[in-house]
Amino acid sequence: MLVPRYGSGALSDVVPSLLAGLDVPGMVNTLSLPAARKVCLLLVDGLGWELLQRYAADAPFLAGLAGGSITAGFPATTGTSLAAIGTGVPSGEHGVVGYTFAAAPDQLINVLRWTSHASGKHVDLRDRFVPEEFQPLPTTFERAQEAGVLVRLVTEAAFEGSGLTRAVLRGGEFAGVLALGDLAAKAATALTAADRVFCYAYHSQLDLLGHVYGPGSAAWRFQLGHVDRLAAAIASDLPPDAMLVVTADHGMVLVGKDDKADFDTTPELQDGVRMLAGEPRVRHIYVEDNALDDVLTTWRAHLGDRAQVVPREEAIEAGWFGPRVLDRVRARIGDIVVATTGTAVVVRSGVEPMFTQMAGQHGSLTATEQLIPLLTLTS
């Protein structure tokens, strides 16, 4: 199990390091990245470092860039990682502690949709949990704007105004895109729009195909080739004193077909559990009063060496969520945290049928999920 290298080699260190080169006050280049006056940070959802190494022949441009690997953060999942990009701090401080988690004692939130979860229907929670209050720290984008840097978000048009965008990616100009060509064109345009530019560009479809068909499948490899050409297209239009930086939010594990524990069909796992959140590779367990020890014993016995099952305080002390966990964040973390190993998953066939069938999963502390690329090219 690989604890993220917060402060010396984690995704939360990337944007502060880049903005230090753009003379944004308070930002420190802890990753010793090259400085440039115009930066495009391309985040490819699901592009794990081990996967890129294994399928380098499908992505020759990316494989040839300078750089290496960093760690994603915990959990290694999109919402948490985008929050690390947008705030420059680990999950223990920004508070997006998973794909789903307890936003209140009686309410699970799905942060990608900003809706209720496991309740039988998706209810918009933007009024109950106002995104700007739910994650109140100033974003890296806001701080860059205040320093006179042109900040532009080049991402899917459907994300404009979403709860997650408002919570962790607010600040800067939103430039919605529809497809790969649109993304390349708008990223290139952003880099010529001012003297100092920070462009955040995001591509999601590689992750989608990894979930559906599995990382390394034919569909996934063809998409990786398209991502490679996307990065090359942006690089070909870099103006003087500009830099392309490529990273990801997590890697991905191919799930073992017979390596699933199903919470919804296993009564012993349900005993003493008030709410279950997270996703198949990482679970937050919220327990009934006085049930912590019994639930801990049962889950450890059932999962064995397929997972680390630890109380909240042990996960915090181990640094999974970063060197600090703020008081407002602590209750969002499960009373028990489950981080699976190998190819194991904890599914919910009744409540999460789509997740249950997915071939590829991510979130945990294995090197396959944690290690992501950090690649650079300067003009």
From TrEMBL:
Family annotation (Pfam families): Phosphodiest
Name of the protein in its database record: Putative AlkP superfamily pyrophosphatase or phosphodiesterase
